[in-house]
Write a sequence for this structure.
């Protein structure tokens, strides 16, 4: 190549070199030792070469510096044009020529890695960054962050943490923006201990940033450090760090789990009074639970009443009536049940609603209304035994055939006959009015129904069915504790579910112990959550000791087989409230086609 052309190319190429970012003073010295400055002069005007001409002449350039510079210039040109494969090829050619300093080569490797990231070629990006880090230069945090990002995109979380840990071992200081990037990568990789350290540093740099305060509380919780999370949020509250509703609820929840339900209730009640949290049934229900844990029944009752009125939730009305019954405030209890039964009830609550209504009617002197309500309660499994005891206590006239056919009253469900809340009762005999629904009963007297779907919080039972009764209490206690901790609540009696019932003696069986639940609850540990399918079944109520569970189910199966029913294989035992290992009241259910 003529000398004039060589000088011209060198001047042109040097003019196209981009500035190197994040270069330390030491590195700047290294860089200057390899740069030839082009003096100003009129001789360059009009002498520029086009990209096409430069590509044509690149192969003939013999001087390594000029060849590397030309390759880098072309690579950057194609990056701007988003022709990434061409750009990578020129970067590789420029690096292979070995004409530039180590610092310039590292800058090219960084640029090439970023091109790979744009192409979503994360493996080659990581390899390129490893080459940049292998150069004998002062380490740069940006390289480690890019490397961690590439590994994160490939789901290689161990490598993400290793890259970020090495950055910290090298003692590299990070500005706030890079610290935020490192925090995000640590957190997404599940490295909560390192996230904690990064957030503490960020709080020292930016103590007025609310997100740092709240994220650190979350990181503490991810490590099960409930006490540290509580102390940290309490300090944030004292420092007047802005809180949104979820932060207030988290603070109250942490106070409760750290054995301070009174403080939790005060926190939430104050936030409700100032509209810092929404005035909703859900929040008043939380307040009820906190006051109940704090053994403040009057305050708990007031909160529950608010929750029931805001939501119209039958379950909350029933809880409220039970509290009022404990206080022997039977007029308030009666009013609560009238409010609960102002509309059609979910079928799952009809029995208990009639029981509580009947008790309130009896205590207020309305024996006729109490008798009808308590008879209704005997027609549904779960509370039928309790209702029968109340009828026996009041020496009530036995139910007529018509009264025993179906529920007719103030508290009614989808299959029942509504009776207006006037205190009157239907005549004791006669046919059912046309157009009303009844429980389905087949020709031989076996009751049949379809149990609606339910959200079930359950655990698998491993062992022989004969020993099932002895395991119930301990399992239910553990299940209830875990359910409440997960933010759920019990919405019905214990379900013992057999997925392959055969009516034969078995040493092992596929059994689930489950509690119906409400809310967005997830499973953890040995406990799982599922939604059941509609369950068509024949059913019968029983009472007896622990071994009687399987005997009752077997007795129902024999009756159903005699009536030529075909089993689906699923069977359930539904325990009533208050069951213990000595005396079970339960409803046996067998799935039929």
């Amino acid at each position: 190549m003529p000398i004039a052309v060589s000088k011209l190319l060198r001047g042109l190429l040097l003019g196209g070199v981009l500035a190197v970012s994040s270069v330390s003073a030491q590195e700047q010295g290294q860089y200057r030792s390899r740069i030839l400055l082009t003096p100003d002069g009129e001789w360059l005007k009009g002498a520029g070469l086009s990209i096409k001409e430069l590509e044509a002449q690149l192969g003939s350039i013999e001087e390594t510096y000029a060849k590397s510079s030309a390759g880098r210039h072309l690579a950057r040109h194609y990056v701007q044009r988003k022709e990434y494969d061409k750009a990578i090829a020129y970067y590789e050619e420029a690096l292979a020529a070995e004409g530039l300093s180590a610092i310039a080569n590292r800058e090219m490797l960084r640029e090439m890695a970023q091109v790979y990231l744009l192409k979503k070629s994360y493996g080659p990006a990581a390899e390129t960054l490893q080459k940049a880090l292998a150069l004998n230069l002062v380490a740069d945090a940006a390289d480690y962050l890019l490397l961690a990002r590439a590994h994160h995109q490939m789901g290689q979380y161990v490598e993400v943490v290793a890259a970020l840990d090495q950055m910290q071992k090298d003692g590299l200081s990070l500005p706030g923006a890079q610290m935020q990037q490192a925090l995000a990568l640590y957190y997404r990789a599940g490295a909560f201990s390192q996230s904690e350290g990064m957030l503490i540093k960020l709080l020292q740099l930016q103590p007025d940033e609310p997100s740092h305060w709240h994220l650190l509380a979350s990181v503490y919780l991810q490590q099960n450090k409930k006490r540290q999370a509580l102390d940290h949020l309490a300090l944030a509250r004292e420092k007047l760090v802005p809180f949104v509703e979820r932060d207030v609820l988290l603070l109250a929840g942490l106070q409760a789990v750290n054995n301070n339900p009174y403080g939790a209730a005060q926190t939430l009640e104050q936030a409700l009074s100032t509209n810092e949290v929404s005035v909703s049934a859900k929040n008043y229900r939380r307040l009820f639970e906190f006051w109940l844990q704090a053994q403040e029944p009057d305050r708990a009752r007031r909160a529950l009443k608010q929750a029931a009125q805001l939501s119209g939730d039958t379950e909350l009305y029933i809880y409220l009536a039970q509290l009022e019954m404990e206080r022997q405030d039977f007029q308030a209890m009666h009013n609560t049940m009238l409010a609960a039964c102002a509309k059609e009830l979910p079928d799952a609550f009809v029995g208990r609603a009639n029981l509580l209504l009947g008790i309130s009617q009896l205590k207020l002197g309305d024996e006729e209304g109490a008798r009808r309500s308590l008879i209704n309660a005997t027609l549904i499994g779960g509370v039928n035994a309790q209702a029968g005891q109340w009828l026996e206590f009041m020496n009530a006239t036995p139910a007529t055939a018509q009264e025993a056919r179906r529920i007719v009253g103030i508290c009614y469900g989808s299959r029942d006959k509504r009776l207006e809340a006037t205190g009157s009762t239907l005549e004791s005999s006669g046919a059912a009015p046309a157009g009303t629904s009844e429980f389905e009963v087949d020709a031989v007297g076996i009751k049949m129904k379809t149990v609606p779907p339910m959200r079930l919080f359950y655990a698998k039972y491993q062992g022989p069915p004969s020993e099932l009764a002895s395991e119930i209490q301990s399992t239910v206690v553990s299940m209830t504790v875990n359910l409440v901790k997960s933010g759920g609540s019990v919405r019905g009696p214990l379900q013992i579910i057999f997925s392959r019932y055969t009516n034969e003696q078995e040493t092992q069986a596929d059994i689930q112990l489950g509690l119906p639940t409400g809310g967005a609850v997830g499973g953890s540990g040995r406990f799982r959550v599922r939604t059941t399918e509609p369950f068509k079944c024949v059913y019968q109520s029983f009472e007896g000791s622990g071994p009687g569970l399987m005997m009752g189910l077997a007795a129902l199966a024999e009756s159903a087989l005699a009536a030529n029913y075909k089993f689906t294989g699923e069977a359930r035992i539904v325990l009533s409230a208050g069951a213990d290992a000595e005396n079970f009241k339960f409803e046996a259910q067998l799935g039929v086609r």
About this structure: Residues 122 and 154 are 7 Å apart (CA to CA). Residues 449-592 form a domain with the Multidrug-efflux Transporter 1 Regulator Bmrr; Chain A fold (CATH 3.20.80.10). The chain is about 55% helix and 10% strand.
